[in-house]
Amino acid sequence: MKTELKYIELKSGFSDNGPAWIGLVSYSKSGKTIYFNGKAFQSLSGTGIYANYFDIETGNEYWISGVKKNMSDRHQFGSGKILVERRILSDYLESIGKSELPKANYELTDVETEIPTERINKLENEITESPEFGIDLYYKEPNELTNEEIKHLISDLIVDEENARFNKGRRSAKKKRIELVAELEKRREKTV
Fold first, then answer.
1. Which residue stretches of 68-110 are H helix?
2. 168-171: long-range contacts, CB 8 A cutoff, minimum separation 24
3. How far apart are CA 29 and CA 32, in angstroms?
4. Domain locations in the chain as residue ranges
5. Model confidence over 65-116: pLDDT tens digits?
6. CA distance 18 to 182
């Protein structure tokens, strides 16, 4: 497996002040997945605003980049210590041309070194059960659906909202869910 020193920063919920690491990442055979600290990341393919990768399991967004020789890895308006993986300290110091780690902005840490390929492969290859309702439900207007179909779609959209990798996907699922809830409430008013 190919490995490389990288700067990794959590962006979701933190802007430019998230937890950050300098560590040794591993690449999958295809090079599309990056593994670090027991997590697996895939590219946002240019759709991220502040991030360029996301955690496959949580959907949290991260900035992952090469290590800068001038030590300006964190955004200029960001703050917080950068955790440097203990096992790669000498390689990192060599790459930045220093003899010791500046204590003001850096701290040594240990990270999870096991690569979760089996867990991630299982997650990515999960076989979905055949749905009770057809996919065509998603393309119908709320007034064309039965109450049971609406309830089914609402429960699906709640899951989609929670698991969406991108904010745009979350907003889209939430908007559709709100429309369906409104339709259900409107029907209840008519039958009362």
1. 89-96
2. 168/47
3. 8
4. 3-123, 128-191
5. 999 999 999 988 889 999 999 999 999 999 999 999 988 899 999 999 999 9
6. 38
